Batch of 3 targets.
Target 1
Amino acid sequence: MIERLLELARRRADGGADALWRQVERTSVAFEWGRLKAAGVSEEAGANLRVSHRGRIGVAGTTAVAGTTGVATDDVGAQHAAPLLDRGLASAALGEELDLVFPAQAPLPAVVTFFDRAANASLDDLIGIGRSLLEQLEREGCRVNVTIERETAETRVANSAGAAGAYRSTAIGVSAEVWRIAGDDVLAIGDAFEGADLPSDAALAALVGSVNARLEHALRVVAPPQGALPVVFTPPGLSALLLPVTQALSGKAVLQGISPLAARVGEQVFDSRFSLTDDPLRAGRAASRPLDDECVPSRTTCLVERGVVQRFIYDLETAARARAQSTGHGQRTIFGKPVPGYTNIVLGEGGTLGDVGAQHAAPLQLGGGLLTEIRDGLLVDELIGVGQGNVIGGAFSHPVALAYRVEGGAISGRVKDAAVAGNAYDLWKRVGGFGNDARWAGSRYTPSVLLDGVSVARR
Amino acid sequence: MIDRLTAALERSRADYTEIRVERTWSTAVGFRGRRLESATASEDQGGFVRALATGGGWGVASFTSLDRLDAMVARAVELSRAVRVTPSIRLAEVAPHQADAILDLDGDVRGVPIAEKKRLLEAYNGELLAVSDRVVDTVASYRDEVSEYWYVNSEGTALHELRPEVTLSGTAVARRDGTIEKGLESIGLRRGWNSVQDKAAGFRKAAERAVQLLDAPMVTGAAYPVILDPELAGVFIHEAFGHLSEADFVYENPQAREMMTLGRRFGKPALNVGDNGAAAGLRGTLPFDDEGTPTQDTPLIKEGILVGRLHSRETAATMGERATGNARAISFRHPPIVRMTNTYIANGRGSFDDLIRDVKLGVYACGAFGGQTLLENFSFTAAYGRMIRDGHLAELVKDVVLAGNLFQTLDRIDHIAGDFRWNQMGGGCGKGGQAPLPVTEGAPHVRIEEALVGGDVASRSR
């Protein structure tokens, strides 16, 4: 445990302390433009300490934690603990005033975060995954980039109130990108697998299928439509519509008075089939963990249920200020202070989450069955500039990076030089339909979604 | 340290080995509204090894425990051998250098108590808040660091540098009823404490802008003649063209090479673009890149014609060109990849008034909230805009989003003024999971004959 550090802190910080220790090892393999190019490892260990002293909070972090043996052990070396605490106390001397109560020990939920198969995979195993992807994705006139990354980590958190937790975790990231440049037309289509365990053969096949399906439909370029149209957003394409909502559901935004959802708990704000959950207990996901980085046990948090706003996410400090309870969303790195952050976000239709866990839904079909009723519209897979500007307000306007025209219920080709715009809150009030293709895209699980009346402009 | 690293190199059994070690002291202070959010001091240290064995790929190892140096050198060599590459990786020739460079610390931030840094930021944050009671929230941050840097490679290069950096930023959030607007001030310098004094005016201006935008109409989406201010023009050239000129995008992709053939016309003769990692006193400036190659001024577009690109030693060797000193890594956690330094549109002629004089209806797009490029397509959000009517600046407008196709847009730059300036902003550039990398952009006022301005896209499509 980080006992030595906390023991020292207990003696010198009158309001107590908490700390996080994390050791991470990564192995990565990169195939660049179709050939195996590099292999790498990284080892990193560090500690983050927070102290409460004379009513003020201080934070300090360090990667100088190696013990006297020179090997990073599971504790902060004696010679490093004192300077780290000194810096924490110096930070607290002018830190923010807050009556922070560190939580006592509570039972932790069971969640599997460590997969032997992932941890034990050899360099050759990882290279093998890459080669197999490469073989399946290579085609005339295209170049393929593939990266495979495996991470094993050990996390320990503890506080002066006696709470402590530790877990080992694994994470695997496999990403593939096919590039096709024809004249001045640059097309890049990629997809990624992210999980705590190695991908199954089926998951890799789905990844290949996903890239190929989108590539085939992209080869033909057609003129974009124009007007207020039905638009289907694929799971990766939904970012622009979900980002304002997740930002507005952060207790921090509420506290700052900038969340449009602040005073709307209990109100029907979204379509009655719109439910949003954050789930740190989801099996096989890299973001899952038994407790957060502030010793608060993990639990599933329902943010929006059937269109009604339920609650916001909090870490300890934001909760203390808002006179709320931490929802177990404290996230911290080696440097800096904890902040509220999501784990696995699940968008479900009417609260029924169904078979959440599959990386890709099968059979893989672009649009998840939502295209058949569309006479003229758009299927959006990737937008440019998501996250820029005044996101939380809900208004967005983005050129498309990858989008397809839908005519007579089917994809007619890829559109370039088009932009979509709208207001996320307005659009979520009335959902045209949820697709049958729910999947993970990063740490978000969603189906495709049909929204009516999205502004589509060509240029 | 250099001796220790050189000894470790000697034990490497690879054809080529390089080691980088960094030790960084940093402090960060943050305000949110009137509240101090954090004031922290951190220490970060670690090393990076990269090796090339005969016929092997890159073997890479990074670590935070320096006692693991020898083990990690051995591991990198082992990894290189495990990755067979044909044809084998070659590196462009670079003469070995030995240098000990102490960059101008301009008031070493390590000697300034954190309480004083807090006071400085509190004052600037106070400027934001004092502008109006419409300013309901602020985010202000101060960050400084001094990084001690060592680099050695098996060809005899040995470098030691002390690199300072200081960044200041402030966002004012103004609100009236449901309308929320932002104003941003951002300063980033490869200097020290003295350089961030007397910056209150810029913070005030940012807050005033946020308040003014509350009353500003949304720009009507359409194609307009657009004048970019030097800040947005700099971001534009970095995002829309700079990334394409990074040779790791083209060097092993025949179609990309064809698209970026030297000699291809990219713009009108008025357009000159380059990247200068050796420009004095800028945030993207360093004497050497992270492969030990001296930095330089690299012309990219000369009189509208593509004349150069940015290289690492590997991309230069593959393409039969010279290394340009653009292999950079954000820290010991990462390998060097091809990056920009200080990217610029060179000075033209005439004044801002010359650019707008004959514009009947246009947009003056100023400042940058952000930008993203997906190769040929880009999107930029300006901080604010002014309409241009009959040759004169008119009303303030908001939500000015520029979107376009790189090739078309570069070709439509028809007038470049003679009022060049470097924009020393904070933040930085992101690529390949490495962000933020300190870079600078510079440009004069630039006119685009016609560009699509988003904003109220809905009204355009009706």
Note: Confidence is low (pLDDT under 50) at residues 67-72, 350-358 of chain A.
Target 2
Amino acid sequence: MTDLSVANAAKQTVFDVEAVRRDFPILSQQVNGKPLVYLDNGASAQKPIAVLDAMDRYYREIHSNVHRGAHTLADRATTAFENARETVRGFLNAESTREIIWTRGTTEAINLVANGLAGRLQPGDEILVSHMEHHANIVPWQMIAERTGAKVVPIQVTPEGELDLDSFNSLLSERTRIFAITHVSNVLGTVNPITALIEQAKAKGVLTLVDGAQAVPHYQPDVQALGCDFYVFSSHKLFGPTGIGVLYGKAQLLEEMPPYQGGGEMIERVSFERTTWNTLPYKFEAGTPAIAEAIGLGAAIDYLGRLDRHGMEVAEHALLQRANQLVETVPGMEIIGTAKQKVPVMSFKIVGLHPSDVGTLLDQQGIAIRTGHHCAMPLMDFYGVPGTARASFAFYNTLDEVEQLFAALQKIQRLFA
Amino acid sequence: MTATEQDFKNNPLGTQTTVGDVTDAFEFLDDWEERYAYIIDLGKQLPAFPDEARVEDNYVHGCQSQVWLIHHYDEASGKLFLLIDSDAMIVRGLAAIILVALNGKSPRELLTTDIDELFESLDLFRHISPTRGNGLRAMVGKIRDIAAAEAAA
């Protein structure tokens, strides 16, 4: 074989889900006497051994505080911690690690930006969000709107669960200062056409923030290509540990923004007369950071980098397709969110059944899903439901698991018949 | 429709259907499907709940489903009567089990009843444990508060 045909053969290899599953020890257990079928990845994804090992090794071998010590362990911890930042920079294709701020998660990242931009807002200014946002991309803006007299304005959603572009076009105006939009809806799975939206917003001089929490488990964003001012996500949905997330921000904006919290690390010099701030990214990282978690996130991204990203996307799409095919096998089942561009997330209702009944009885069969309002009450109101049941898939889920979900739903329906 | 004294007293749960009935029935249920079918059936025994009682004061917070709870203290017999409603079938069934254990008792008797033990013996404890956000814990807490207030009165 020539080198070229070897490369082609490698490309054509089918994504080996069984091999990948062996990297996630939590998946091979029984729950309520049944093999676990974990379909709550939208709430939090499971962690590969590579992440568990990286965190374990950190605590066993190099734990120390970062950026401070005059000793070897401190150097090693700092190196590992800053290497993780470089890994995140590479993942997002940011220009510099100065633009990568560690936060506790998406929520804290959005709060940080909202607070940092509050000084630019005046009464009558508008913050444009959408009707499909998670509360984390609504409430921080409402809080600064309250403080500044600005207004939070939601873009409408179509019944299919897509952004209403006419609504966007009519609401993006001279008054708009900030446009904060989710890349992928946590309830509907809709992938928003953010590239075009950001371009339009930027043309009007509007600052743009993208909530990438639900997007990064499925796509690798390129912040320079997107052109957004801020992109935020959480580690735990990206197969990394809880307690850490990322704020990407354009360096110039981050420079202009005031610090979020005061304390250690974020200062250059403190006196009672005058305190000056540390440089980026440390200006926004008061206190001892989540070091092991940052290293764990770095390990998660490295792990994903070793997988066949294209093969993963194809496999995930097949899961969603199979699920869509099987909907008709459950009478009275209705999918909420049928956008053309979707990640493998399926919110649904079943006539006559409360989502919490569905969740409880799936759990009995070893199947983990999420039920409730998914921190998106405005969207629940739009669809006129108290909540939905949501199955959210990851690349380690199998077609067999999709089929088990539907067999279990059929069983539940018989129980209520 | 307003809840009359008779509506409260007509609730079969805890008066006609007893804890013994439920534990006996559970012994004959083999798998989860039979158990939950039974729980769902019990939920169907909850008496109709008056529409105008579905107000904030009677709302039990902390549930994914909507849960309402009202009570009537019968001076003559010294017994406390309860009505519960929910839009989720399994919550209705579990509420029925709570009523079987707590409805139509004197407040003092009610306060000495160990509901956790009952749920444990039925292998349903995880539904009522503090880690579950389904509001059953809140429901029991509200009933005990009512009983404590009546016992102190």
Note: Chain A is about 40% helix and 15% strand.
Target 3
Amino acid sequence: MEEQPKLTDKDQSIVLRRLISYLKPHKKVIIFALFLLGLTVLGDVIGPILIKTFIDDYLTVRNFPQGPLIGLASAYIFIQLSNVFISYFQLLKFQEIALKIIQQMRIDVFTKVQNLGMRYFDKTPAGSIVSRVTNDTEAIKDMFVSVLVGFIQSAFLVVGVYIAMFILNVKLALVTLLLLPILFLIIRTYRRYSSVFYQDLRERLSQLNAKLAESLQGMSMIQAFRQEPRLKDEFNDINEQHWEAGKRNIKMDSLLLRPAIDLVYALALIMLLSYFGITSFNNTIEVGVIYAFVTYIDRFFEPINQVMQRLSIFQQAIVAASRVFKLLDEEELVPAQANTNARIEAGKIEFNNVTFSYDGKTDVLKNISFTANPGETVALVGHTGSGKSSIINLLMRFYEFEQGDILIDGESVKNFKVQELRQKMGLVLQDPFLFFGDIESNIRLHNQAMTDEEVRASAEFVQADAFINQLPDGYKQKVTERGSTFSSGQRQLVAFARTMATDPKILVLDEATANIDTETEVAIQSSLEKMRQGRTTIAIAHRLSTIQDAELILVLHQGEVVERGNHQHLLASKGLYHKMYLLQNGIVEETV
Amino acid sequence: MKVFLDLGWFFKERKKQYIVGIIMLMVVAFLQLLPPKIIGYVVDEIRLGTLTGGALLKDLLLLAGAAITMYIIRYYWRMMIFGSAILLARQLRARLFEHFTRMSPRFYQKRRVGDLMAHATNDLSAVQQTAGAGVLTLVDSLATGSFVIAAMAITIDWKLTLIALIPMPIMAYLTNYYGKQLHNRFHFAQEAFSSLNDKTQESISGIKVIKTFGQEKEDIQDFIQLSDDVVEKNIHVAKVDSLFDPTISAIVGVSFFLSIVFGARFIIAGDMTVGDLIAFTAYLGLLVWPMLAFGWLFNIVERGRASYDRIRALLAEPADIDDASHALDVKAQGDLKVHIDEFKFPDDERAALKNVHFTLKRGETLGIVGKTGSGKTAILKLLLREFEGYEGWITYGDHSINSYKKERLRSAIGYVPQDHFLFSTTIAGNIAFANTSARLEEVYEASRLAHIHEDILNFTSEYDTIVGERGVSLSGGQKQRISIARALMMKPELLILDDSLSAVDARTEEAILESLKASRVDETTIITAHRLSAIQHAHQIIVLHEGTIVEKGSHEELMILQGRYYEMYQLQQLEALVEMGGEA
């Protein structure tokens, strides 16, 4: 369950203002839509006046001249008809604006997410980021569509109705102004209580669901420890509290929503009738005016009821928006790159005394220095947590580092443009992530300039073509659910092809052969060898057999290089590497 | 409407509330007829100049009385009907929970937590809607609709009523038609939204690949395209959605126009008064809601029926492991004899266990080793009676484990599972899970035995620290040790550690094993492990391979045998050495 941030009134108004600022780019369309809205309100307001004219000038005096009457009727029909059309377009326009705004907000959030550094992804569960981009923005959409638009409509209608009433009868219009503070009071009271009661209900619901979800997940534990009765009691407690909160909400809604507004409506009628009744004792009253006022009062209460029903949507949207804005304001960005024209030509990599920590407390890399000359392979070996992956993370600029420097062709990695780094360095991840689409699109990714031939050539180069050609749809074979229909080896081969398609100068392999099934292992090994030719390679390998020909092997332990040299040299020194080698080859007799 | 019959038991239970609530709804529907009538009456009096102060006061008091009565009644029917609806949700929720606690692991293997949650949330709220808003729309649309029409026809003019009602069925038809269109289009909009959701999910899971290939901009472009689709599909929805209000006002407008035109004729003919006409138009306004409500009713009821059917199906699932009719209500203790010839997990062809026969004497420790999938956990699950239906038998003391009451068997067993599941409560609450009334001293004692006491004292709120998302995040080793303390709190006759020391370091492991040995005199222990150091001290060790016992004996015996156990032992020695950086 997502935590509900507590927002003060001030926070809420800041969030609301920021939400409204999203309207700005649509100013013109909004003005147009408001104009249409104005027209419909005008129509709504004029209709009763026409009927009033008919009643007072013709019906009560029994005077029926054909010409004016037909004119009156056609005016009425014309207004009604055009109102139907205009209000349709007006409603549609507002919905369009709301949808566009939400789209913009989604794009903003998604773009922001793409620009966040890996640290952010480490500390934030993927599900909650997805929620920010889609679900929270959806909640905001509901607010724009049903609350804000409804609010504007009501405001227009209220103003229109009052103008008409003032035209018809100033005194009575003034009297009906009394309704406004009463309604305002009800709305304010409702908002005050609902922000407490409704929030409470939502919190209890989320507690209830959290308890249920947790109990379902831990059911085997609950049963093993015979705690079913206790958990049932606890659940029933929360269930009862939720029910109590529900009752409080029904009570509040019943006291302050529709029934209350209807009561005010009756009050308005009483005001009208007493005014007309008392005036009629001394003056003549045009009944049509009574009709018009009664109709106006009717119209007036409709939108108010609607807006009140939807206030809870508003509350939720504000909460959702505050979460979205928090993400938009996140400062954990990708490491900055200097804007120089430095190029990677030869592919020489140097680590100079690099020290690094993820949390600022414990160093995961301590004083790492090594050089990979162009075309050479440097292998990183060590036990989990020894710092191998961190070296790659820094080289790829996934994380910013402060101490020491990493040079490529003599230039700090911080000085290359991102595009240059990404183009010239190819990283193959341990978990070959395939996207929804087909094999071809997974090799090409978004690079539309790549020809089909190039796609095929890179697949052939890494010897992925053998299995691809056997697929029923070949390169067009669908990839679903992250490629779960393919074996891990096949996925890895596609990932190889994807990397080779960009023809990088530097190859970075992150335990690329860690989870490979035996069928594809041979293919993978020979592909890797081909890929490494002519490229500087930094390779992490669990299987030492895959890196025996590396020019330099670094053995890492707790963030430090504890042994370095080539395979023969390291074996001869009978250190940690030697033990690892023995372990992997299952040669146990010699050791103990 | 069948769902109303299916929910009949509940309506019967809340007979009083529903009957009173429905009567109140009808009273309100009737009282609603008063204001238009009074307006019409006053208008006529004013026009004729016959209005007196007394008559006006009487009318206004009547109006005020009706309004206040309606306010009060509206409040009460809501409490009765909506109050009952949430009570139904509460009852069903409690029943579901109760049912969930009786379901065996087999049930949880078949159904995902997410699905079960969906039943307990979405389906429940649809049923709640049926018992609340469903009843309301049914009664109110029928009552208000018929009362208003009756009032128009009887108290004003039946001919005019017929004329005014002509367009109304068109409205019912159109709104119903729009509703269907909306449903379809909404479905597409929902699909577009879920593709966008999938895309976002994928981008975030694959963020490293995207960054590696510098494809952020292209990925954003892709996202924009999908979001365009979402906008387009939603505009399709809006196109129908925006039809509702104008259509209703058009039809009401036509009906209204007809009433004025024909009403005027009737007035001239002297069949009715201007006041009648004004009252009549006000009644027309009252008719809009019942027309719409009727359309909603079908929606609510349809969803309610589907949801209630799903909930009933869930509640009808039988508990597949139950106590025998004369289950033994005695303490389970003694020697453990396992004689399993064959066991397959449900829906699995492969035998998980085959010919697993051994005896464990009371007070002894058994070690079970083997690779992942060799059947270690399967044996434990059978001991815990999480699964039944194997060939062979298991006895504990003098009886088959199946003849004990489940409750009695489980109270003898302290189980520490592989996936150490902790609850989001305090650490003390987690440790005292099986015995909430335990003294704090007992909790400390168990924690000391599990060598977690010192760690806990280092947390900000010590034993009151909350575990989980909103509290402290524990390391795997800490979680394991808390799980062990939790099991030790039961002072179990049989303690089962299912690979529960894998995340603690070698030294702590040794210390825990030592204190277990010292404190658990005459009590039986079963330990499964990857790491042999955890079971080296056991009286008896069995080595499992593909579900069957391949070696059996004490550590020394197995080492002499120089078989699988011996090989594993040698490799692990070396592994330990590598982990420590090569310096033993």
Note: The longest helix of chain A spans residues 66-114.
